[in-house]
Amino acid sequence: MSAETVLSTRHDAWAELDVTTAATLDVETVLARLEISSAGLSEAQARERLQAVGPNAIRTHRTRRLAVLARQLRSPLLILLALTAIASYFLGEPTDALIIGAILTASVGLGFFNEYRAEKSAQALHSQIRHTCVVRRDGLPRPVNVTDVVPGDIVELGLGQVVPADLRLVSAVGLECEESVLTGESMPVAKSIAPVRPGAPLAELSSCALMGSVVHAGSGTAVAVATGGRAEFGKIALGLGQRHPDTEFQVGLSRFSMLLVRVAAVLTVTIFVINLLLHRPVIDALLFSLAIAVGISPQLLPAVVSTSLAAGTRRLAQRKVLVKRLVCIEDLGDIEVLFTDKTGTLTEGSISLVRSLGPDGTPADEPLKLGLLCNEAVVAAGRVAGGNPLDVALWQAPAAAALGAALTPYRRLAVLPFDHERRIVSVVVEHEGRRTLITKGAPEAVLSRCVGVPPEMTATLAAEFAAGNRVVAVADRPAPESLQITFADECDLVLRGLLVFLDPPKASASHALERLAGLGITVKVLTGDNPAVAARLCADLGLPGGRVATGQDVAAADDDGLAALIDRSTVFARVTPEQKARIVRVQRGGGLDVAFLGDGVNDALALHAADVGVSVETATDVAKDAADVLLLEKDLNVLADGVMEGRRIFANTMKYVLMGTSSNFGNMFSAAGAALVLGFLPMLPSQILLNNLLYDASQLAIPTDNVDREQVARPARWSMKLIQRFMLFFGPLSSLFDFATFAVMLGIFHAGPPLFRTGWFVESLATQTLVIFAIRTRRSPFFRSHPSLPLVATTLGVVLIGVALPATPVARILGFVPLPGPYFLALALMVVFYLGLIEVGKQWFYRALPAVPAGRERSAGHRTHRRAGPFTTVHRIRRRSRASDPGHG
């Protein structure tokens, strides 16, 4: 029997089981069908199964050349021009047809090249995003990449984890999963190991945990039954396909494009009708009108944006920022308020146990011993494989090793997992026939369940909090007879002491806060920690003072009251996950762009609620899945770099947009005017297209351009009012010099059609290209702002090409003739006067704008979004769409 046959046979034996069948079987039968024991797979078995079934991913982000090319060919104008070129070829105009075809090919090629590079950047970006889970291999728990999970893997489930595959539960303690991504039900579903009835729908598969759902409470272990596209979520995702909702940036681009398309439609029809009324050939009139439409349409805007975003992605990756979608980079630049957690952002994130104190506040080992027994960290062979930071810190404490032998006789019988409402965890342990209930958690929560708390404990706690330390209280009591403990059993406890942890302020945090303040971003802290600890940290870092509000204050306030509380508060302490999300929503409702930075289970709701959700590579799965942006280093300086890059990209995109409105509209307006007074076409269709192609090629260097400091000092957004005003103001200024060129060519040089077209081609290309140096900055005179070398090189290079073309061998093919020497003197004078007039107009235009930054249009509730789906797929299904307020353009 061949190796292929053996692999196929083994594959059939364990891979045909699906979750709906597994849910109806008992655990032993499922394990037998999967050919494994409770010890899990060996590494060799896991590798073999991975080779057989493939990665545990629904789809990967692969760049496909044909798909990118197809997007370049979707423009109706390009398609219509291509068809018209074919028609002109068969109607006796082969030269024009070939020229138009060559220009269209070059235009599509430029767009393809730049978008393909952007897609490759996105592919490289996604390859860096990783999610892990803890599985049992060779009998030991170990973290693995979720894409390596295979049928038969025993998976450890904990609070906040995104379920990596379709799993059949082996054990469960208070386990609840939130499954709305699959079933639409918002309430968590309680889980158990008992089989369900055959034919039960997904919503009733209580013996299974489904890919993409989130562990809401409790813990458990489960065996993977189906992975990747064979999981229920995978089937749905592959069936629906994938389309991300547009961001505000994309909506703005679309609306700008539609504005120019509407203008192009009016001008095209008008010019076509005028040429017909003047009895010009229908084909010439049609080609000329279509060329006008292409000339004003933002043909290479997607390429410019893609180039900007791709370059921005590479720069951000170098600065340790990963953006899940390229278009979300610009959203970073909009941030006005940043809510952040405390641990790892303002602190070092290296939590360590500094002391274990008895009830009287003196050093004692018993609290540490009880803390190690009442612990949810995953420990194997003395090594910590996972768990929350405080539990991990307990096991990593030097004193824990000395207590290892003392813990061996204890046997854990039951556990009541931690949740963010109780803020405690309880276990039942047995030692020498005696059962004890041990409870550990936030001091307020534990002490409220204790009896006979020593009076000196209040002073001890106050001193630790004032020092900025994190404190966990430990208590116990005799356990109830039943092994099924409930929340009601967490009462009448005896306080055994405190565990004190240190997480020092981050050295770079103070400078980062100054940078963010300089960018106009207000930073506020949302934390589940004690108010005194949070206040002390903020004071040490120099965060602007304000009220320290608590979860009780938030609960007591209605939305209007909470909005006022947010305005006067810097720190919100002891807040629940729901309260964090509510604070973010209320702040957004005030018309501000809000970011939230968090990495824990309790941060997921707030990450969903924010305009920009930011997490870190080491975050919990549910936090990473909810975030738009991942930081490879949890540092506010890294986030500040991302904000700067987002604003830089938007500023450079606006340069192209404003160029398009001033130059293209002016040229097409001039063409419409010339069509009324001339007895011939002012420029041939192929010449218009060539002019547009050369102009756009020069603008492809805009993404490399330098940005003035004042342009990135504050957020700026799309404003169609600003763009329309700019177009209507600067477009006619451009046309004035086109009409001056007409006068020079007809009145001084007595030009016929070929010379006239050549002169206007050169003047039009020179003025609309060189004006970038004035448009790119608000500074006056414009040479006080320094453009990038690539922009200078491409701009001047295109102007030289335009000037040289009439003297080249291809001039006759393009319909050009040599220009007389005096024309170039006139051209130089017109360019100088044109740039001077633009400078004067620019000063008047910007002085007349409102005092708020350009593009600053906003209303409350401007966006709704957003996201859902498992980490196993790069492209995720999203439940909610993001919409932009109509005022944004």
Automatic annotation (TrEMBL):
Region (Disordered): 857-889
Pfam short name (any one): E1-E2_ATPase
Membrane-topology descriptor: Multi-pass membrane protein
InterPro entries, per database record: ATPase_P-typ_cation-transptr_C (IPR006068), ATPase_P-typ_cation-transptr_N (IPR004014), ATPase_P-typ_cyto_dom_N (IPR023299), ATPase_P-typ_P_site (IPR018303), ATPase_P-typ_TM_dom_sf (IPR023298), ATPase_P-typ_transduc_dom_A_sf (IPR008250), ATPase_P-type_domA (IPR059000), HAD-like_sf (IPR036412)
Domain Cation-transporting P-type ATPase N-terminal: 21-93
EC numbers for this chain: 7.2.2.14
GO cellular component: plasma membrane
Catalytic activity, reaction form: Mg(2+)(out) + ATP + H2O = Mg(2+)(in) + ADP + phosphate + H(+); ATP + H2O = ADP + phosphate + H(+)
Superkingdom of the source species: Bacteria
Transmembrane segments: 73-91, 97-113, 259-279, 285-311, 726-749, 755-775, 787-807, 813-837
Keyword Ligase assigned: no
Signal peptide interval: none
PROSITE patterns, per database record: ATPASE_E1_E2 (PS00154)
Compartments, record wording: Cell inner membrane
Keyword Transcription regulation found: no
Keyword line: ATP-binding, Cell inner membrane, Cell membrane, Magnesium, Membrane, Nucleotide-binding, Phosphoprotein, Translocase, Transmembrane, Transmembrane helix
Coiled coil, from the record: none
Single GO term (MF): P-type magnesium transporter activity
NCBIfam families xref list: ATPase-IIIB_Mg (TIGR01524), ATPase_P-type (TIGR01494)
Homology family: Belongs to the cation transport ATPase (P-type) (TC 3.A.3) family. Type IIIB subfamily.
Function noted in UniProt: Mediates magnesium influx to the cytosol.
Record-given protein name: Magnesium-transporting ATPase, P-type 1
